[in-house]
Amino acid sequence: MKQSKLFIPTEKEVPAEAQVKSHIFMLRGGFVRQVAGGIYAYLPLADRIINKIETIIRQEMAEISANEMLMPEIIPAELWKESGRFYTYGPQMYQLKDRHDRDFIMAPTHEETFTRIISDEIKSYKKLPLIVYQIQQKFRDELRPKNGLLRGREFIMKDAYSFSADSKGLDDAYDAMESAYKKIFDRVGLNFREIIADAGAMGGKASAEFQAIAATGEDIIAYSDQGNYAANIEMAEEFFEKKVPVETAEKMVLVDTPNTKTAQDDADYLKVALHKIAKCIVFKADNQLVTVLLPGDYEVNETKVKNFLHADKLIEADALTVFDRFSAHFGSLGPIGLDQDKIKILADRTLENESNWFVGANQDGKHFANFNLDRDLSNFEIGDFLTAKEGAVSPDGQGKLVFTKGIEIGHIFKLGTFYSSKMGGQIQNEKGKLTDIIMGSYGIGISRLLSAIAEQSNDENGFIWPKSVAPFDIHLITMNTKDQLQNELTEEIETKLKTAGFDVLVDDRKERPGVKFADSDLIGIPLRIVVGRSAAERKLEMKARNESETTDISADDVVSYAKDKFNELK
Fold it and tell me: One GO BP annotation here (predicted)?
């Protein structure tokens, strides 16, 4: 491919709107252009990389006998109303009406559509298990799209769905997809981790995320520095062992805590450790008030609370509602004396391991000292509601938790019967009885994957693409296109390399060598070969993008040199 014929609108300056390296270099290197906030056009170089990523995905999907299909991007709202997600998905969902005033959505994902197709066509367990997938645009109206392709409103996704007659079929499909995803992310050259994750709006329970390690990632990953444990911070746990409290429970007494508004204020006034303040956080879970008790030196984990309650929505209660139900303001709230028909009480499991806590008395400026959970409360539920801390012992007891940032590139879910039970997805089992189809859902954000690879594969000058996804294998540069001998040797080398199976970009532009080399570094093709002043001696210069040293080679041996060097690259 001649570079003079390829649309690569490179830029020298750093675009003002770009904050992270992947976005900066994609704009400067002419890979993408923004059409609107969070909506991008993929120019030829980016499109070539995406095609290579998709080819790898298709190869690995074929290995697990997954069927590729293609669903519509515009979906009747009735399907999402059947599953209930139309009412719970939130403002990220694009909604529209046709000329007959019928409701439609722009698909953010396709569980409902696949469930409908499979439910209509498969009625017997003999046709299962089945895995289907597609590669398609998705649409989510992000409140604050940012960092280029990392968080956009329109993006490319590979979404797959498994349909099974029993739990074993789901487990087998989940395991097969998990293995395939690991192979895909290895093949595209990523440093990634598989972590325990929250199923969120997808429904179902068991799920895992695949996170590309990157300082610019939006997610925090907690992992053991000695074991295999890894989880999203939303799901991360600390080591816990049920213990009998060491201290003897003392009589609960009322104490003054004037003008305190936070757990730290309470600890400072009472001259006790922040940990000994059992703070009370109040939420509205769907239509029910819930109070969560936890040690003062921890933050509440809202995802854990929401999952424990099986709630669709969880928000912190406002001050007026709190005062109406507790007869006190924030800073003096506690569980004693609450109307438990109106307020559910949750207590973190760590409170059971210690005695004599300080807790709000539901009187402004007052706390109870020596609060003991099992003695002083009779109707509460225990669970893990803490946000894990870095440095805490890993829940598997192996090492300590270390935090890093990551970019979510894939997510797999065991949906169970969440969709099939609501949408008529039943089959006749081997005993002749109707039973719900058991489903799994599996996604890879392809455009985000492109950005994640870019975040990990660069230096100060531009990209260093892994050879498996690079837009071209070799960048062949003619130093002086006015020199007929250089042009002829370039054509000869191009033919040899292409015959050997290499994908070659030939820089035949009438530009200065400095411009060509700078653009070559920016674009990031794995191997560069230069035809220059030594063309008369049939000498070439070869350099890998990830190396600083240049090697002189003979034009007669260019293919063997290129193969050897290319095989060394990742």
Answer: prolyl-tRNA aminoacylation
Enclosing domain of residue 484: 472-568
The CATH number covering residue 444 comes to 3.30.930.10
Tens-place pLDDT, residues 105-156: 999 999 999 999 999 999 999 999 999 999 999 999 998 898 899 989 999 9
Residue 479 pLDDT: 97
Residue 130, number of CB atoms within 10 A of its CB: 19
Of the three residues 383, 414, 430, the one that is the final residue of a domain is 383
Query: Whole-angstrom Cα distance, residue 257 to residue 368?
Result: 10
pLDDT of residue 88: 86
Supply the pLDDT for residue 339.
87
- CA–CA separation, 434 vs 344, rounded Å? 37
Q: Which residues of the chain have pLDDT under 50?
A: 202
Say what the pLDDT of residue 245 is.
Answer: 94
Closest-CA residue to 298 (of 387, 372, 234): 387
Question: How many separate domains does the chain show?
Answer: 3
Please enumerate in sequence order all residues whose Cβ is within 8 A of that of 466, keeping only pairs 6 or more positions apart, or say none: 188, 189, 453, 457, 526, 570
Distance between CA 540 and CA 556 in Å, rounded? Answer: 10
Q: Is 209 found in the same domain as 63? A: yes
Q: Is the domain of 113 the same as that of 206? A: yes
Q: What is the pLDDT of residue 312?
A: 86
Count CB atoms within 10 A of the CB of residue 529: 25
Which H or E run includes 367?
strand 366-371
What is the C-alpha to C-alpha distance for residues 35 and 148, in angstroms, rounded to an integer? 11
User: Do residues 361 and 367 lie in contact, with contact meaning Cβ atoms separated by under 8 Å?
Assistant: yes
Q: Mean pLDDT over all residues of the chain?
A: 95
- Token pair for residue 341? 């028909």
pLDDT tens digits for 315-371? 999 999 999 999 999 999 999 999 888 899 999 999 999 999 999 999 999 999 999
- Rg (C-alpha) for the chain, rounded Å, is 29
Q: How many CB atoms lie within 10 A of CB 524?
A: 26
Which residues lie closer than 8 Å to 344 by C-beta, 6 or more apart? Answer: 285, 288, 289, 290, 291, 309, 381
| Cis, bond preceding 129 (omega within 30 deg of 0) | yes
**Under 8 Å between Cβ of 127 and 165:** no
In a domain, 467, yes or no: no
